[in-house]
Amino acid sequence: MNQILKSGFVTLIGRPNVGKSTLMNHLIGQKIAITSKKPQTTRNRIQTVYTEEGKGQIIFVDTPGIHKAKNKLGEYMVNVAERTLQDVDAVLWLVEPTSFIGAGERHILEKLKKITTPVILIINKTDTVKPEAVLASIDTYRVEYEFAEIVPLSALRGDNTEILTDLIFQYLPYGPMFYDEDTVTDQPERQIVAEIIREKSLHALNEEIPHGIAVTIERMKERKNGRITDIEATIICERDSHKGIIIGKGGAMLKKIGSNARFEIEKMLERQVNLKLWVKVKKDWRDSDFLIKNFGYRE
Length: 299
Ligand code: GDP
Ligand code: MG
Ligand code: K
Prior knowledge:
The chain has 299 residues and is of the alpha/beta class. The protein has helices at residues 20-28, 72-87, 103-112, 131-142, 162-170, 188-205, 240-247, 252-269, 289-295; strands spanning 6-13, 46-52, 56-62, 90-95, 119-123, 149-152, 214-222, 228-237, 272-281.
């Protein structure tokens, strides 16, 4: 076990329906992200882990796409996507094989000009056009930006996709793997649900809990009819006195947190949610490996 590994984070950006989920699924060899003909099925960051023995780990972050936000949820999605651009080790930008740069692409180009992260341009769906059109597309894009690499491929057919992972590894830092070798996804929906509950709690508590709280999701399951999702979560605090504050008089505080969180989670999942909240005291939860893993913190 004396290998020199590379491990890092990569984000896939591009307009809805350009093939981000298809590409990621192809690379990972399993169906994880939701692909669909309807734009924005992928509402949240999906971290998918690609492990190659002896080489290291590429952690893919599938974004909802960078576009102009129309509402609050849209804003949240755009913020997540934009913040990610500077934080990752490489950006993969997927585009259609056209020689016309549309308004959506111009918008993305403007965002890319503000970051220092290397950008790999992927011209997808090469199976839908003639080779000359692919070349014309490369020429159109390469004068607009200094891309680290330009890779034409077909995510659907798997044409030219095998070189992509090798290329990505070139841009990753040396370092140990972040996840176990057999990890494929870190259940981002659960993570986001936990984040929403935590945010609503802090908001409702209004700094009454000085040392903060953590949230774990005990159970998250869709009912057979597909319309309702049952979620059980635990709010973890450090002291008994904090527990009392979180529950509130006659449970009023917990009820308020629960209904605010439920509203937000339903918007995100686009499903009805039955949310049960518990409060537990756990001293020094900050030192707990389990919680750190559970929240997906990198450091
Ligand atoms: P996303 O919104 O960017 O995640 O796009 P999806 O991965 O959901 O793909 C949107 C649609 O484009 C789906 O119907 C895919 O099957 C299709 N698609 C993705 N990649 C390719 C490709 O390389 N060639 C062709 N012909 N279709 C593709
Ligand atoms: Mg998608
Ligand atoms: K989509």
